[in-house]
Design brief:
- There is one protein chain.
- The protein is of the alpha/beta class and 409 residues long.
- Helix content is 42%, strand content 18%.
- The chain has a nine-stranded mixed sheet with strand order 1-2-3-5-4-6-7-13-14, sandwiched between helices. Strands 8-9-10 form a three-stranded antiparallel sheet.
- A hairpin with a 2-residue loop joins strand 2 and strand 3.
- Helix 2 packs across helix 9 and helix 4 packs across helix 11.
- The longest helix has 27 residues.
- It is globular and about 75 Å long.
- It starts with a helix and ends with a helix.
Length: 409
């Protein structure tokens, strides 16, 4: 019923949002002789902020049409090169003959769309042939396409790496760290010809026993049955995925916001001031960030619940107990060829310091020369893969690591 209530609430507020947009435009109109009065500017800002906060955001666009290679502007074309029910492989094809390392960026399936990694892709484009996992909203996947769980996630990673072929590299941001590490372990054991040459794992819950954060504690304090009873809902009939059991994106968004409520309130208050002052640049930056942040997708129930239990409650991979398809042990000790770089943020409140670097302890047969770790001072979870410090410090380090271990260099 919660899903249906959210839909009804969204529809109910729609007329008020449209009216607020109209009132804001009317008050700001150059034909309004009172438009510049302080009280009128504040009222217009209030209407505009209300309209922004109640806007329903669909899937954003990457919008990466060009990059700079060797000081020259090069056009970039997005093309879907492989499609599966719950995700597609998106290639950012650069108009260049350079044979740069092939890089698969595995985006988190944690409520936001892959476009949340726009900055990650943009930073890697100049020196790499970039692909990304573009996950599909579970509410848009018909029941006839079957389910999707953590094991399927591992299979998708392997299949996408197969599309890239040999001598490729993989970068996992946040949640995908566990399934990517598991996929590389399975591929190593199988002597898969498409085994990636390197893997970079950033801000990921490899071992949540280390410096547990609020999400880790929430998972530990509640049984899997309680999660299933309280946060799993059926998709309404108006969607292609009608009747599919999902963890709704709006619940995940609510959880993220509640973790840093003061910060979000302050951000909206600053936006109100920008609107009153007519500061278009800062107001637009706020809109851009929140249009991305508020665009959410549903997760299949089986994937969400299996991730909670395997990663956060049992720490199965970290303990050497993770099973693939119920009957095959994931043995990270089989990883001998794929170089490993881990990246953490000093202030990460999602994947605490120590959780990601734990991957090195699991790859017991990987040579030290193939291992590296970096902790970025002064950044939280988002700053690990986006923002000025990512562009200045982290991205170059990742790029250098990939090129150091690339077999085609």
């Amino acid at each position: 019923m919660l899903y249906q209530f959210n839909e009804l609430q969204r529809l109910a507020v729609s007329p008020a949002r449209i009216a607020a947009q109209f009132q804001s435009q009317l008050l700001r109109s150059p034909f309004n002789p009172f438009a510049e009065l302080p009280a009128v500017r504040k009222l217009a800002a209030s209407y505009e902020l209300f309209a922004e906060m109640t806007q329903n955001h669909g899937k954003p666009e990457f919008g990466l049409n060009e990059t700079v290679i060797d000081g020259k502007s090069v056009s970039v074309t997005e093309e879907i090169v492989h499609e599966l029910p719950f995700g597609q492989l998106l290639h950012f094809k650069r108009d260049t003959s350079k044979n740069d390392p092939k890089l698969l960026i595995v985006a988190p399936m944690s409520g936001h769309f892959a476009t949340l990694l726009r900055g990650t892709v943009e930073a890697m484009l100049p020196g790499h042939d970039v692909y990304i996992t573009d996950w599909i909203d579970a509410a848009a996947v018909p029941l006839s396409d079957g389910g999707f769980d953590l094991d399927d996630y591992i299979d998708y990673v392997r299949e996408f790496l197969g599309v890239l072929g040999p001598n490729s590299h993989v970068l996992a941001v946040c949640q995908p760290g566990v399934p990517v590490l598991a996929a590389v372990a399975l591929m190593s054991e199988d002597d898969d010809p498409n085994l990636p040459t390197s893997m970079t794992i950033m801000g990921s819950p490899i071992d949540t026993r280390r410096h547990p954060t609020v999400p880790c504690e929430l998972a530990m304090d509640n049984s899997i049955e309680r999660f299933e009873q309280t946060v799993i809902h059926h998709v309404p009939v108006v969607y292609p995925g009608a009747f599919r059991r999902v963890y709704p994106g709006f619940l995940q968004l609510g959880g993220f916001v509640s973790m840093n409520l003061d910060r979000h309130v302050d951000a909206h208050m600053r936006q109100f001031d920008h609107l009153v002052e007519g500061d278009g640049d800062n107001a637009e930056k706020h809109r851009t960030f929140y249009s991305e942040y508020n665009a959410v997708m549903d997760l299949s129930a089986e994937y969400y619940l299996q991730t909670i239990e395997t990663v956060f409650q049992k720490q199965s991979l970290a303990k050497g107990e993770m099973m693939y398809r119920g009957d095959r042990l994931v043995e990270t000790s089989t990883i001998r060829k794929t170089a490993l770089l881990t990246v953490e943020g000093e202030l990460d409140d999602i994947s605490g310091v120590g959780q990601t670097v734990a991957a090195h302890d699991l790859c017991t047969n990987l040579a030290k020369t193939k291992k590296d770790h970096y902790e970025q001072a002064g950044v939280g979870h988002y700053g690990v893969f986006n923002g000025s410090k990512f562009r200045e410090f982290i991205a170059p380090r990742v790029s250098n690591f990939i090129k150091k271990h690339d077999t085609l260099k």
